[in-house]
Amino acid sequence: MNRLPIRGRPAGRLAAVLAAGALVAGTVLVTTSSAWADTLLTDTFEDGDANGWSRSGGSWSVVTDGSLAFRQSGTSSDARVLTGQSSWTDYGVQARVKPTAFATSARHVGVVARAQSSSSYYALVATASGGVQLVKRAGGDPVVLGSATAGVTVGSWATLRLEAVGSSLRGYVNGALLVQATDAAFAAGRAGLATSYASATFDDVEVATATGAPPTGTPTGGPTPTLPPTEPPIDPGAPPIGFASVNALGQNGTTGGAGGPTVTVDTASELLTAIATPGPLTVKVSGMIALPGPMHDVTSDKTIIGVGANSGITGGGFNIGLPVSNVTTPPANAVHNVIIRNLNFRNTVDDAINVQMFSHHVWIDHNDLSNGYDGLIDIKRGSSYVTVSWNHTHHHTKNMLLGHDDNNGAQDTGHLRVTYHHNWYDRTPQRNPRVRFGDPVHVFNNYFVYNTDVGVACQLNSGCVVEGNHFEDVEVPWSISYSGSRGRLVARDNVLSGTSEPGDSGGTVTEPRTFYPYQLTDPASVKSVVMAGAGTGKINF
């Protein structure tokens, strides 16, 4: 578990990572206040255990369900797990919850706040009928304080959030306030998860003192962003920088739909038809389009670009790649030459953007991504020559994955060459990115703020160059020993503010300049430059 005690000092595995780290030459340490303490606790179960949770009843275990998650599999009793401190007072507890079975129609699963014990607490629960209830339990049967229709179904994920502030109780489902009540029985207590004669899977647990409806703009918690008065000039016609610009695999740089026609789409059917059309095509997305989940295939030679600052997709995501197979040789028909720019991605039921199966020459630029189910931008299974630039990611835990599995070295070794530059990793706890096998991976001029797990995690013999970034109140800015398997990492000319130690690094990595030229933004200016330029609405077409 990633615990954040008072004043943000890390504990457990991450404390060991920090202790192993040494200051890296070229790193700038900026003395500021300690890490912010709005987040009391997060647990994504990616370390493979549930240490720190006290169990009462049921059969609890960490399992794989898309990613690692915490499951209670029994339906013959009440089951609780609690964590945190009995002194916690005003806070919200949030988790993704997937009910898997109910013994009877009167049973439920959910999240717990202000627990005095395993039988005294408040809870927000999803019921077998698809509703949601605020309940109080004081040693006996639950007492319903409020209820609403929520549409939570067996086998589907929903985000439940229970806030206890003074005597006010508020219950949110997928960000919407559905039920409220007032009760003063319990003033403080631990957080937890609960099932009542039901089974469920839980993931991405967060307990935070910041309360109120989950915002849709800039997140709260951590340093207060201050936008500079002007933004840097960005040429929308300029080609990509980084690996997407390299002449390799029969493709000279990334041009997307250049040379083909342009279509504007504003419905799901129009968009899906356009991205499946063979040949070069520029697809302009007008407005927010709701797509069915999970992901939809994008064919080669496409530019998909949003019109204005408020266009994009919700619900579904984009898959850039052939169907998954065990081949280890890049196929001749691998998807290639795809550009995705200036789009908002919201509430995707799987990955927002998934690049896989030896796809190459992909440019993901100036997008705003949040509130997804799994990864926001995942790159895996032998894909390469990708640039991820000027994106704003927020309100999401498992941010960007590069290399999906510890056992996929046969496909990934020699591939996964990716550049990440000028991205705003805005309170995204982990995977910023998390790297397996990629070599080299270039992470430069990004702004990391209040990442409560790890910034750049370089594992499994991957090689990362981390340079010219600004890390502000990041628990572990970079590491080569995250989850035990070591990579190689060179860190230079990074700014650290609110962080006394960067993490561990070491080994040699091929210089990115071997592949492409680039010019660094002054690290002292990275925060203002990235905040002004990342996300949608910054480039006009």
TrEMBL record:
InterPro entries: AL/BT2_dom (IPR010496), Pec_lyase (IPR002022), Pectin_lyas_fold (IPR012334), Pectin_lyase_fold/virulence (IPR011050), PEL (IPR045032). GO terms for cellular component: extracellular region. Residues 210-230 are annotated as: Disordered. It is found in: Secreted. Its main location: secreted. It holds the Pfam family 3keto-disac_hyd. It comes from the Bacteria. GO terms for molecular function: hydrolase activity; pectate lyase activity. Residues 1-37 form the signal peptide. GO terms for biological process: polysaccharide catabolic process. SUPFAM superfamilies: Pectin lyase-like. Keywords: Carbohydrate metabolism, Lyase, Polysaccharide degradation, Secreted, Signal. Residues 258-477 form the Pectate lyase domain. Belongs to the polysaccharide lyase 1 family. This is Pectate lyase.
